[in-house]
Write a structure and sequence with these properties.
heterodimer, A: 493 residues, 5-stranded antiparallel sheet, 4-stranded antiparallel sheet, 23 strands, B: 197 residues, mainly alpha, Rna Polymerase Sigma Factor, Chain: A, Arc Repressor Mutant, subunit A
């Protein structure tokens, strides 16, 4: 990719219109081109200017009068609307709609016969009919949507303090209510998760107790001392991973605003995120301890919007092949990339080293540990019939201490916790996991966070500064992605 | 007539084609902000925006019979509005040289000083709006649709009934022209951002 090609992509990049391979290719170019990195900055600034300048304006009061006057004025050049054949055909296909039309026609005919003189309002009468029709439809739609999605209660997690049971079944309206943040009123031990469905009927966060020992690369299934759960009469109360020390709370759910570019405030008390609102890209902050979201200041917004560009800035020059994919730079100036079916690392002034071979998948993501001493490789499955390296791996920068942490992988998300003790990652289906590493990074286990695959978001993972909590954007369906707070206690690892 | 507010767009259209002008007034009330904003951002002039909005609503009135009630009303209205704007902008006498015909044009020069939120200052916003209004119409319409309504490239392509690749090219070229035109504003804004830390 040359600079001209990159600049054409940059416009679409800042508008979030690139697909993953295009974005990957652009990243590779940007990593070695300060001029194009500056273009990204300028493109973002231009977007900011445009978003500020292109806002809605209130129309002058005279507009309505002028339009209605023109509509009422007889003119040979201005004909009133006539029903097209298509209009009738479409309306007749819908019996109910057709009934509404007939009702409208009837009522207006009645009005023209003079009923209005007796205080009869045809529009009000029509409204009565239409409201009844709408009410029926809404009920049907609501019931249908619930039956179809099986989500009656799945994404509604109202966190209350212990003992406050609620027998209310959640509804679609409840789900709208779930756009408000949940509140952590007590420590997780005393939390009661209301309306959290079990794995059987909940596509959401996992109550699966499978885990994996990573010592020899062998996976084990087991249930390490699960606590006895009280019987759940109607699944109104289901603790989530409570025996594992893993909890999840839904903070934000809005089908019109999918959060992205997550970051924690430096004090770890808030999660910052971006959404695409009507006025362009907007940033919000939501307190993890409960409360409503608030808009970010310009400085905070700039932090989020500049995240991926900062990643590229100030890196020492290492020749990264043009064909390289999944390029990852470490804070110490090391680089890792996929070339063919091999993962290479390189340091300033040193040659490249192959650290993992036989990765026969294009779905590979790489991430350096905070101290740059370990590289995590999240590799997808190989083509059918071939052997590959699917899973989550960690390896030293010179290829030493290669270990496989999980046999599944291949998602685009991969993020080390600041304490270097955990790695959050996803597999090709969009299922999310956390690998817990022991102090020596030679032992530990993997816990599944979501029970099924789904959809994440761009930069939709962020560890809290203390590494004890994970912010995650996830939903089983693309339009039902919410911002979740996942907390880990010591029993989890 | 407050109850008309509770009807859906399609139900209002049905009433309008049945001869109810109050239903049409309700449609105008419902969409006048969007239509007027589109017109205003395209021409950057209140009088012209008012005329253009009126043309859009009259065209809408004449074409309501062609509306397919099984499809959402808003994109259909936008398509019609864009066609009216496009035709009108093309007919409009060009006050300045089109930017794409000018090889060396002078960047707009902002005044010194200004408030803390530099980009939000009235002066800077006016410069940006002027620059948008001076773009050739084939770049101007997709840019305004993108930033006014936050539409995706595909949605813009659907509204303008053009291939996605054409919209990508127009947005790229339009924004490149704007960036050049606003280069001094951008530089000044960047310096302020840096100096603020």
């Amino acid at each position: 990719m040359n600079c001209q090609e990159a600049r054409q992509l940059i416009t679409r990049f800042v508008d979030e219109e690139l697909n993953a391979p295009q974005e990957q290719g652009l990243y590779v170019h940007l990593s070695g081109c300060p001029y194009c990195r500056h273009e990204v900055f300028l493109a973002r600034e231009t977007n900011k200017l445009l978003a500020l300048a292109c806002t809605h304006v209130e129309p002058p009061a005279e507009l309505l009068g002028r339009v209605m006057q023109a509509v009422g004025a007889p003119s040979k050049n201005f004909a009133p609307p006539r029903l097209g054949r298509r209009f009738w055909q479409k309306w007749q296909r819908s019996r109910k709609n057709f009934s509404a039309i007939v009702a409208a026609g009837f009522l207006f005919l009645a009005a023209s016969l003079g009923l209005a003189l007796n205080g009869y309002d045809p529009v009000r009468a029509l409204m009565g009919r239409v409201e009844a029709f709408d009410r029926d439809n809404q009920v049907a739609l609501r019931n249908g949507a619930e039956a179809e999605s099986g989500l009656q209660s799945s994404l509604v997690i109202n966190v209350k303090s212990g003992g406050e049971k609620s027998s209310n079944k959640s509804t679609t309206e409840d789900r709208r209510g779930a756009t408000k943040p949940g509140s952590l009123t007590k420590k997780p031990e005393s939390l009661v998760f209301e309306n959290v469905p079990s794995k059987k009927d909940n596509p959401g966060f996992s109550s699966d107790r499978s885990y994996q020992d990573i010592g020899a690369g062998q996976e084990h299934m087991g249930s390490p001392t699960p606590q006895e759960q009280p019987p759940q009469a109607d699944r109104q109360l289901v603790p989530l991973e409570v025996d594992r020390g893993v909890y999840a709370v839904l903070l934000v759910l809005d089908d019109k605003e999918i959060p992205s570019h997550l970051a924690w405030s430096p004090d770890g008390k808030e999660i910052w995120y971006l959404v695409h609102g009507s006025g362009g890209q907007e940033g919000f902050s939501i307190p993890v301890g409960g409360g409503d979201k608030t808009p970010l200041s310009r400085t905070q917004l700039a932090v989020l919007q500049g995240v991926d560009v900062q990643t590229f800035s100030g890196k020492p020059s290492i020749d990264v092949p043009k064909e390289a994919e999944a390029v990852a730079w470490s804070e110490q100036g090391r680089v890792a990339y996929l070339l063919g079916d091999q993962v290479f690392t390189a340091a300033p002034g040193g040659g490249k080293v192959a650290v993992l071979s036989g990765v026969k998948s294009s779905k590979v993501s790489l991430a350096w540990s905070p101290d740059s001493d370990l590289l995590a490789v999240n590799a997808g499955p190989p083509p059918a019939g071939e052997e590959g390296r699917e899973g989550l791996w960690i390896v030293g920068p010179g290829g030493e201490n290669l270990r496989r942490l999980s046999k599944t992988g291949g998602g685009s998300d991969l993020l080390w916790a600041p304490d270097k003790q955990k790695i959050a990652f996803s597999d090709a289906s969009g299922t999310y996991y956390v690998a817990f590493l022991g102090q020596d990074t030679r032992s530990g286990r993997v816990v599944r966070i979501t029970s099924v695959g789904g959809y994440g978001s761009r930069e939709g993972l962020a560890w809290s500064p203390d590494g004890q909590s994970l912010a995650l954007v996830w939903g089983e369906k693309a339009n039902e992605r919410g911002l979740w707070l996942v907390k880990f206690e010591s029993t989890a690892y | 007539m407050e109850l008309l507010e509770h009807l859906t767009d399609a139900e209002l259209v049905a009433l309008v084609v049945g001869g109810n002008k109050e239903a049409f007034a309700e449609l105008v009330k419902r969409y006048q902000r969007q239509v007027y904003s589109l017109a205003y951002r395209l021409v950057n002039n209140q009088e012209d925006a008012l005329d253009l909005s009126q043309d859009i609503f009259l065209k809408l009135y004449q074409n309501l019979g062609k509306y397919d009630p099984q499809r959402p009303f808003s994109p259909w209205l936008y398509r019609l509005a864009c066609n009216v704007c496009y035709t009108s902008l093309r007919r409009r006498p060009q006050e300045a040289l089109p930017l794409d015909k000018v090889i060396e044009f002078t960047p707009l020069v902002p005044l010194d000083g200004g408030p803390e939120d530099y980009y939000e200052s009235r002066e800077v916003q006016e410069l940006v709006r002027r620059a948008i209004a001076e773009l050739p119409e084939n770049y101007r319409v997709p840019i305004v649709l993108r930033y006014l309504e936050n539409l995706t490239y595909q949605q813009i392509a659907d509204i303008m009934e053009l291939p996605l690749s054409t919209i990508e090219t127009r947005l790229y070229r339009g924004k490149a022209l704007l960036q050049k035109r606003l280069s001094l504003v951008l530089e000044r804004g960047a310096r302020r951002e840096l100096s603020r830390g």
